[in-house]
Structures are given as C-alpha cells and as structure tokens.
Model the fold of this input.
Amino acid sequence: MNLILISTLTMGGLAAVFALFLSIANKKFKVEEDPRVEQILGYLPGINCGACGYASCRSLAEATVKEEVLASACIVSGNDTVQKIAALMGVQAGSTQRKLAFLHCGALQSQRRKKAEYEGVKTCQAANLLMGGDLACSYGCLGYSDCQASCPFDAISVNGGLPRIDAAKCTGCGNCVKACPRNLFTLEVLDEEPDYRVVCSSLDKGKKARKVCKKACIACGICVKVCPFDACELEDNLAVIDERNCQRCGVCAQRCPTGAISLNSLC
Done:
C-alpha cells in the first residue's frame, strides 16, 4: 500500500481516537457554571478596568456568586447596578455614593515655570524619576498624560498641559490615582452642591511657590481670615478646606490672590 496513504489513514485514525477521548473527558469532567455569573456579567460595565481588585469583570462576577465579595464590589457601577446584583444574590445592597476623580493642580503649562528642557521618555513616570523632568515645581502636574492613558472610560482629556476630568464619563475607578507619580489625584464623593477645593499641592513657602507657578497657594492665610465658618486653615504652607464646616459661600475663592481655590475643577 502506498506509504502516503498509510500515513494519512494512521493520522486520521489517531485524530478520531483523540477526539473521542476529549469528548468523553469533556462530558465527564465538565464543571457547570452558575447561570448567575452571566447575569451579573451582563450588569457589569465589561471594561475590565481592575479597580475592584480582580483581573476582569468575569472574575468579579464569579467571586460575587461565590459570595467572596459584596454586591457593591464594582466601584465604577452605579447604584442601579448594585441593586440589581443584590436582588439577584438575595442580599441587602445598601446605598452607594458615586465618586469622581479630582486633580489637585490647577496650573496650565503656560503658568508653570520650567527649569530645563526635558528630552527623555514623554511620560510622567519617566520625567518624575529624572529630576522631575522640566518642571520647576516639584509638586505640580508634569503634563505627559499618564492619567489620560490609564483611563479606560475616556474621561480625561489634556488641554494646555493640564488634565481635565469629564464628570459625565468618570466612574471613579481610581486608575488615574495609581498612574500619577505625584499623587495629584484623589477620589471625591460627588455632591449635587458646588464644592470649593484647593487646586494646588505645593508645600513650598509662599515666595518659592509663587516663583515657579502663577497658580500656586502662597500660604498668605487670607482664606483663613475671611472664612466666616472656620472652614479654612493652613497646613504645611498649603490651604486646606474642612468640608464639614464649609457652607459653600465662596468667599475664600473670591479673595484668593492666585486663584488656588476654585469651584469644582470637574468639567
């Protein structure tokens, strides 16, 4: 018999045997998945951002069904999604507070002084390692868009070298918080009322801070003096607003000589 034909029949026979073996093994060792996994997966955003601590939305769905996490474990989902997952699992969901990212730097690139020409890798992480890149302020935004690249929801744009956060798209996943090497992002509870915030992170004394940035807090203490509710104070040369006392009168923002206090930098 032709050698090629023999080889073909032999390989075909082996393939048939292996296919039969795999079919039997699949049926015998098949693990039935809880149908609730697919249901929960349908509720989740499916972006696999990792903010929950799991590698994917499916992994979180599986953990939820196993009751390893709470129904509210997905921090980027809204309250409606949490309620649906809780109802499916037969547990109490409770209420959730939506959080948004907030940037503690308000200076455009044109308002920051440079100390040199940076020609290294154009990322914030790389520039920060190399003596802070070209920025004279050691606390300000470097402007190389690491936060924008890390956002899976396209909620961050960079204009004039300064990130802007789209409140309608931001889910509070926290990826920008992790991406920023200068820790300029925090997650803040979304409030329907306007909030006044300090858009500066410099701990330098007033003269030095003003020298390197036009928008810097210069620790002049005017906000502390004019606030009628004792909601402003200075800590390490930086103004701080106590949200518990703040009545949102806006006097501090109006009197700040550098504009380091502003009304919600969220767009």
